[in-house]
Amino acid sequence: QASTPAARPGRHWPSRVRPRLPCAGGGAAAMAPKKAPAEERPETPAVEDEPPPPPPPTEDEVTELETGLQLPLRGVDVGEIWALDGDFTAQTKVLEAMLGLAEKHPVAPRRQAVCEFYLYNLSQAKALCLSTRQGAVFHAIMDQILNSMRCDDASARAQPKDLPCGPEQCFQAFQQLLLQHSVASPPDRLDIFKVSEARMLADFAMSTLFKHFLLYQFCLSCPQEVRPMVP
User: Fold this and answer.
1) Cα–Cα distance for residue pair 2/111, rounded to 1 Å
2) Could you tell me if 149 and 210 are in contact, meaning their C-beta atoms sit under 8 angstroms apart?
3) Is the pTM of this model over 0.85?
4) CA distances from 114 to 10, 41, 80, 96, 160 (A)
5) Where is this region: Disordered (predicted)?
């Protein structure tokens, strides 16, 4: 019989090979460097969107032209007054509120004369089929001429020669303003009016304001004394 080889001392044959399990907390994963915790960044407050800029004013909303002419009434204001055509009392109240005539002319007769002058000019502008913007520019020109006629320190017995501005000077200023806004050469000149329209407005001013120039100037410049009528 063949003899069975004897096992070497100090060595044995396992019945099965057991898988090696990593030790708890050991192994390659345990040896890897730990990542530092991510820093918490403060939350950035949400920036509110700025409101969009307001749209530029339309032609009927501007209060000053490129020529430097100030418009006491805008085109939309003229349209509001024209909408009350036929109601003189309502037009008077609206116009006095828009222009602050009660503060500018505390004396009632003077305020009434100025208000009627403005309304008469606007009525003529509408009769000539001008636009509301043209009506506002015509009002501004006539208002500037009317203010140049005024002399606050005049006495009740002042003569026309004593007043600083006469009819010729005022008419030249009126012609210059009307021409400045009847020729297309911006920004110094604007074609607000056609040549035919400017001619009709000049004829109207000649037959109203400049025909009664001294009367308007006296009403604006000289103090008035109101006396009650004795029956």
Assistant:
1) 149
2) no
3) no
4) 133, 70, 19, 10, 20
5) 1-62
Distance of alpha carbon 25 from the chain centroid: 76
Q: How far apart are CA 198 and CA 215, in angstroms?
A: 25
Using CA atoms, how far residue 31 sits from 20, 28, 35, 38, 221, in Å, is 18, 5, 12, 21, 104
Surface-to-core class of residue 97, CB atoms within 10 Å of its CB (0-12 exposed, 13-18 middle, 19+ buried): exposed
Cβ atoms of residues 91 and 84 within 8 Å: yes
Could you tell me if 124 and 116 are in contact, meaning their C-beta atoms sit under 8 angstroms apart?
no
Strand pairing of 182-185 and 189-191? antiparallel
Distance of CA 158 to the CA centre of its chain: 42
Structure confidence by residue, pLDDT tens digits, 48-77: 778 888 888 898 899 999 999 999 999 999
Residues 6+ apart with CB under 8 A from 138: 121, 125, 130, 193, 201
> Tell me: the pLDDT tens digits for 180-211?
999 998 888 999 999 999 999 999 999 999 99
Residue 168, number of CB atoms within 10 A of its CB: 10
